[in-house]
Amino acid sequence: AFISLTNHTASATNYTDFTKAEGFTNHFNQVANQYQVPVRRTIAYVKINLADFEGDIRKELKFDDEVQKLIEQHNTTTNRITETNGTALPINATNLLARAEEEVRKTPLGDRIFDASNAAARVQALAFRKALFSLRPFATANLAASAKQFNLQLHTATFSREEPPEDLPGSLIEAAFAPSLKSGKLLESAVFTTNPNHIYILGLQTITPLKLRQYAELTKDEQNKVHESFLTSETRRLALEAGEKFQAAAQASLKEGQSFTHAATNAGLSIVTLPAFSLYANADTNHIDLLRDLVPLSTLQNALFTHEQTQQAKADPEKENLT
Questions:
Q1: pTM for this one?
Q2: What is the largest CA-CA distance in the chain?
Q3: Where are the beta strands (DSSP E) in the chain?
Q4: What is the pLDDT of residues 126-150, one digit of tens each?
Q5: What's the CA gap between 147 and 48, in Å, rounded?
Q6: Residue 175 confidence (pLDDT)
Q7: Backbone angles phi, psi at 91, to 5 degrees
Q8: Is a pLDDT exceeding 60 seen at residue 321?
Q9: DSSP readout, 179-204?
Q10: Where does residue 45 fall: left (phi above 0), alpha (psi -120 to 50 degrees), or beta otherwise?
């Protein structure tokens, strides 16, 4: 016998104000964590970009001359620069300069430029941190004065670990959420990132704790989602209650010598008689057709298997203790 959820949908939706329905508060408490505002941290930071040091270094190492040589070679010989997918670029292609620079950067000359830029950026970062940590106490508020002294822009950002800004690298996010970093304090070490290559010096301004929002604080869309999930939950609850009530009535009827079909008919439930099937085998076509729109055969198999195991355990308590 099958009890349809659809038959209980009307009862589940029969509320003028479903927030006052029995069980709604408990349901919302169970799903409230889906709508919480996570812990957020506000940081202040300065960013030293390695690219800012490349200008003079490129001139000194004649980087642009090498790029132009590569472009000339491309335009006058069959030795062509290619796209990243390997397709040869046409002569005087619009992205020829950019691709030529990328190719030169792959050479030892590109490595020399990176190493020199990295060294220059680290020198500035070291000088900045020395000036910053010469101030007492070691406070995030000191970043503003040091940034002004070195002509660097001071940035701020507020974010959660769950929803970090797309324009900030993951290593910076992790550093901001370091357990040892306290409100108003500086991070003792710098953060180095690649692609792009930056050095970050940061401090934590504030920590906004996790907030569990009340139903009235949710957006309309969020309230609608809670409404839908409550109706689904309530429909299942009512159907389960009806199933438990029928189960008790059927057991009582069987004890009185009545058939299961008789109990189901009295309860207004439909009966489906299945041919014999294994608890372990895959469903075949006739089972699927008979159970269509009612229940997956696998669900029925699992329920019967669990019931069988329970009955065996009751019949043999010692076996239950061994397992």
A1: 0.64
A2: 102
A3: 40-49, 154-160, 191-193, 198-208
A4: 999 999 999 999 999 999 999 999 9
A5: 11
A6: 96
A7: -65, 135
A8: no
A9: TT--TTBB-SS-EEETTTTEEEEEEE
A10: beta
Closest by CA position to 196, among listed 160, 168, 157: 168
Q: What six digits make up the tokens of 179?
A: 């357990």
Query: Which tokens sit at 81?
Result: 């620069």
Cross-strand partners of 159:
41
What are the structure tokens assigned to 79, written together? Answer: 């030795």
Per DSSP, the three-state class of 139 is strand
* Average pLDDT over every residue of 227-240: 85
Beta bridge partner(s), residue 192: 199
The size of the chain, in residues, is: 323
102 CB-side CA count, 13 A: 9
Other CB atoms within a 10 A radius of the CB of residue 32 amount to 15
Q: Phi and psi (nearest 5°) for 135?
A: -85, 145
Label residue 11 by pLDDT band (50, 70, 90): low
Chain centroid, CA 131 distance in Å: 39
